[in-house]
Structure formats: structure tokens, C-alpha cells
Amino acid sequence: MSAALPARRSEDRTERAADGAAALLAIRDLRVTYRTEAGALHAVDGMDVDLAPGEFLGVVGESGSGKTQLLLAMLGLNAPGARIDGSIRYRGQELVGAGERVLRCLRGARIAMIFQDPMTALNPYLTIGTQLTEGVRHHQGASRAAARRRALELLDAVHIPEPERRFAQHPHELSGGMRQRIVIAMALICEPDILLADEPTTALDVTVQAQILALLRELRTRTRAAIVLVTHDLGVIAEVADRVLVMYAGRVVEQAGVQRLFEHARHPYTEGLRRSIVPLAGPLPARLPSIGGNPPNPAELPPGCPFAPRCAYAFERCPTAPPPLAPVAPGHLCACYYDGPRGRIR
Amino acid sequence: MSAPPADTAGPAPLPAAPALEVSGLSVRFAVAGAKRWLQAVDGVSFSVERGETLGVVGESGSGKSTIARALLRLVSATAGTARFRGADLLALEGPTLRAMREHLQIIFQDPLASLDPRMSVAEIIEEPLREFRPALDRAARRGQVLAMLDRVGLLPAHLNRFPHEFSGGQAQRIGIARALMLQPELLVCDEPISALDVSIKSQIANLLKDLQLAFGLSVLFIAHDLAAVRFSCDRILVLYLGRVMEIASRTALFETPRHPYTRALLQSVPVADPVLARARRAAPLGGEIPSPLAPPSGCVFRTRCPFAGSLCAEEVPRLRPVGASLVACHRAEELAGLPRNGG
Question: Which sequence spans correspond to the domains of chain A?
């Protein structure tokens, strides 16, 4: 094991405060809207997120839930035509509406991204070494030799065998798992405070996924960067996340610590997702509990709670207005009017 | 359901015979620009019993989709036989092959890509009847289409819509309706739920199971998702680099996996329980599946196997009974005594 990854920068330690103002990243009422022929498409429809230094935040959602748009908004990389409203503050600095110059200084340097498909994230024409050192050369003005040294350290840190040889190779010469390690090394090379990972293991085989998840767990203790991992797989969340946001139709519907979320899920959607997982051991149901219907089209969201049309507990109030994300226990928020048999309206 | 039509090739098989019996199936591809062969499937034998769902699991490059394609004659097998309805599927040609397709249908992974965007749902579901039941008149066809639509959970109002108007789950229902229209004897499902959203997967898994029981289908279920396989399959075949590692009943495979690769696969699946997930933390299996252009000598899994010994490099392990399973591992008996996390 190498010591390539330095300890966290000292100023982070002073930022343990829980309120949004002191968070590493504070997102308030974020909206990402696209104009389409069918009208406004609300990809992200009012989200509040706080990210503390060093935490591992899992974001679960299905296609169309807005989870990727959320990540892209943190980098100012949503597709042209996206309208971004609300606020994203990184160390107090507002990113919404910030100029390209400001964002370019942050991207890759302070906030880095690991994409889903390592093959398309890498340039097939350039050597691993060139791609790996581009970030430090650009952001930190490192010399060629220093950049190379740093890159080799990083390759070692992500457990790439024979780093010297890999440095000169092209992406097609590496396996899928190896490529994803390269992409992770690339994201880490400038020692970012925040690492965004969009379904980083979905394109990988299950034995390789286990390796990459183990690597992410190891890195978070060594780099102390905050990690935001977006996935559709609750199993992946259970393996790595400290805290979880569950997204549905562009909103956070539930938010809790990982153990709390799996043991005391309060939102009917979270509960439905959890129950539909087939266990690999123990009793097997004859039929899988499933959530009826289909996820809504983001261009035609139902009024009120977007999950209401599929919800077994929906009642008169649900279609009237979207339920606010409100605390149900310390550190546990849920956006649902139904409060179990004890009483319907909170 | 209705009796099989009388005009099929060969005599009707005995009820006890498997629906499909594959023996020594091999498929290799010539590699362009190099005088080399890529051995995608290497001497695979298995059977699908009547009314049974046999799962084929493996990672990418294991050859699982190639097996499906070879059986459907979309790629040619280099060796082997596949007994189906009294004939060798792999040797049929021309009209007899075409006639056999009536009894052998497939559901694809990507539901939208497998539906013709220019055809309405009614046309898509009706097409098999037009091709194979020319005697049916329009009204009779429509009746069968409506009945099937209901079985797969679609509405008559959907008939005149086009594939792009449907979500992934609904499109897969259309694909299932099309595949079942002729009441095939064998249904090949190539990753039928892996492209679907999490909340939709279980709907489609339940639907496939219901239909399999209702129609008495024999199913070859190809998947990489072990949880899906556990729910859907009666028996499971584990494939690695084109070879069978283990064949076992669902219970035997998940409770007493015999092959080191099966064990590693089961340990790699993320557990949706944070306490358990953090408690078990076995070291993941190292390395990745080797290139099928240069497979390891002896046992193909030995380069990643924590238990590999010298014999494993020299001799290809035969598939043989160990406990309630068939296992291709020289050391299966020794390993049987080890705890599940042994390694």
C-alpha cells in the first residue's frame, strides 16, 4: 500500500458544523429545468442537500429521477438549454451563475467526477499517462516530471499493477476494471474535496464491482474527500454510503443515515424499493413485492406528490400539493403525508 | 393451452424427455486480421427439463449470450448438438428451421431496441400469427391478440400505439406478448429484466414467472444478476470463459455453492443490508476474466482462484457430481468442508 494520498487539508477540520452555511457544499432549492416542445421538463425540482467534509453520501434513484442532473449541476455541466435556479455553494462560493472561468478552476481540481462508463470517459487516442497528468499540469502547473511522479503514485494508490507500463498504454489495452481504476486515479490526482461518482460500477461485472467498491471505501479513509455516489442499486448504497438521499421525480423523498434508512424507511417508495430486492439467502417469496405503475415522465409530473399515483397509501391530500421534506426523527427526513396507522397528517 | 400442432418435424417427444438437450456445444469466432480463434463457448452440455426454468449466469465474456444465439441459429456452432422436439436444432436448415422457430422464441434484453419502431403494438403482437397461423381470419387473430394483451398486463387502448410511446417495462411486456403468441415450447430470455428500472424489475420478474406456470413453458434464462436468477430459476448453470463451472438446483447453488467461482460470485453481490454488508467484508476476488483469445491452461478459472494448485494448471477439470451439484473443480471435495467465506 502506498502513501500517495496526502492527509486532508487542515482547514476541513474546522468545518464540522452541521448547518448548511458551514457545509462543504450547500445546495438550496435547486431546480434544473429544460424547455421542450411538450413544455417545461423539471429534471431537478427543488432540492436541498448539504455535504459535510469527508462524508460518503449515497444518492439512489431510477432513470429520470434527476440524480445525474444533480451531479452535473454541481459541476455546471448540464446540457445547453438547462435553466438552473437556486443555489449551490461550495465553501461559501456560489456556483449557480458563476462564470466559466470560476467553474473551470473548480472542475477536476476541487470537485471531480467519475463517470459510469470508463471506456467513454477516457480518450482512446491518448496514453493513460497523458490523460492522467493533464489535470495536475493544468490546475497546479506541475512540471512534466512532477506530474509523472504524482500520476505513478496515484496508479499505485488505486492498485494498478506495473504503473510504469500502464502509463504508456492506451485505454483499449486495459480491461474494464482497470480502466475504471484509471478514471478514479484521474479524478483524485488534484486532491479534490468532493468526488462525484455517477453509477461508477454499473458497467462492470459483479466481481469487478466488488473490487471497485472496496477501492472507494479504502480511498475515502485515505483521501478524506467527500464522495457523492449516485446509483440505482440499494445494495451498492448499503455497502459504501454513510448517508442516503432517495430521489424520485427530481425531488428528495427521503434522507437518512444508511442504517436508519434500511431499518426504518418511512417513504412508501423507499420501502417499495427495499422490499423488491431478492435476498441471496434465506426465505424466497413466491412473488416479489413490487411497486405498481411506472415512473412519471418528468415533462408531465402529476400535481402534488409525484409518487402518489403508484402509492399504496395515497389519500385525498397527496395529489393536492407536494409534501415537504420534513424531519421524522433526528437526521431522518421524509416527504410524505402518510404517517402510518397512528395518524395520517403530520 | 392448446395442443401442439400436428405438422411438426419428427415424432412428438416422450413426455419424460427434456425440452432441450444440449451436448458438447462449442462456438468459436475467427479473429479478423489474426490467424487466431476466439473460443466463446467450449464444450457446454446441459438440459432444460419440461416446465423448468434453467438459469445461465456468467459475467461478460462468459459466453452466455453466445449459447442463446447458437441455439437460435443466429451464430453457427462449431460443434455439438441440441435435441429439441426430436430434431437437432443445430443441424436444421431452410424450411424445417423456419418451422421450428414457431416453438422456440426469445425475449431480448433491450425491450425498445427489439421492437420495430414503425409497427404498432397490434401489428407487432399479430405478426407471429400472420406468419405461422395463416388460416386464422382477422377476427380470430384480434381475439388472440386481445387475450394475450390482457395476460401481459397491457390495455386494448395500447394496441394502436407505437413502441416509443412506452416505458421500458411496458415495452418488455409487448416483447413478452410477441414471444408467447405462438405458445412456444421453449422460451429463451436473454437478460430480460436487467435493462429495466429497479421498481419495474420485480413486476416483470413476477409476470414471467406467472406466464411460465400458466403456459407450462420451458425457459432458458440468461442473466448476470444472481438475485434475479435466484427468484426466477429452478436450476442454474454457472459459466466462466465459455465453460461450465457448476450446475445445481437453486437451493444447492445458493446454500452450498461448490465451485470457488460460484462462491466468489455470491460473495461479490452487494448485500442490501448495511450491517451485514459491513460485517462480512471478505476480500473481493482479484483480477478479471482473462481474454478468451488466450485462455489459461487446465482450469480456466485457476488464474483468479484462491485454491488453485498444480493439477489445476495441467488438467481441465471434468464436470462431475459433488454433493447435490455438478462441479468442474479438481478440489471440490476438499473445499466442501470449508466455511462459505473460506479464502
Answer: 52-80+91-256
